[in-house]
Amino acid sequence: MLIEIDSLPEEGLKVSKKYEFISAELLEEDAEFLNPVHTDVFIKKSGDEIFLKGLIKTCISLTCCRCLSSFDFKIDSGFDLVYFPEEVDINNEQLDEEEAKKLFYYSRKMDLKKIIMEQLNFAFPVRPLCSPDCQGICPVCGNIFKEGKCSCVANESDPRLDKFKIFSRDKR
């Protein structure tokens, strides 16, 4: 949905919309949409600055980084953004810290669908876990620990640390 900056009403614009994105647009590799993305966004113009305040709700299937099983991840995320008009400074080859944090719109238009997808990708956890206490998988047989214990005897010793064991025995 393209927003024409010059046609924004003075009191602002409220947009409530459901988006049907394809899962390939998500940054998380194995993520899949389970529900459409419901958004409520308020857009207000003040001078040349554009203020966006919104809420995104959906449910996505993610893969746990410990046990590799799929789980449902509900997203209920808010955002508050400020966009500035495109500024082209040909003489400035490097951005300073303050300029790097700014968001810009171009050609007096904003693509709301693109902004929603960007904010949706920001809502993902860094390490997706099916539960905070997930124990992962057995390093010997690959059994998922939350489905039941296995009879494997895992070697607790890491062979890369054997040199330190010799060192600590010599110290005694």
Shape: elongated
Structural class: alpha+beta
Average of pLDDT: 84
Unreliable spans are none
- Largest sheet, described in full? 6 strands, mixed
**Proportion of residues in extended strands:** 25-35%
Specify the helix fraction band: 10-25%
Order of helices and strands: EEEEEEHEEHH
Helical segment tally? Answer: 3
Question: What distance separates the N and C termini?
Answer: 71 Å
How many domains make up the coordinates?
Answer: 2
What does this structure look like?
The chain is α+β, with helices and mostly antiparallel strands and 172 residues long. It folds into 2 domains: 2-134, no CATH class; 138-172, no CATH class. Helix content is 15%, strand content 34%. The protein contains 3 helices and 8 strands; from the N terminus they run ββββββαββαα. The chain has helices at 97-100, 112-122, 162-171; strands at 2-4, 13-19, 32-33, 37-46, 49-63, 70-85, 103-105, 109-111. Strands 2, 3, 4, 5, 6 and 7 form a 6-stranded mixed sheet that branches. Strands 1-8 form a two-stranded antiparallel ribbon. The model has no long low-confidence stretch (mean pLDDT 84).
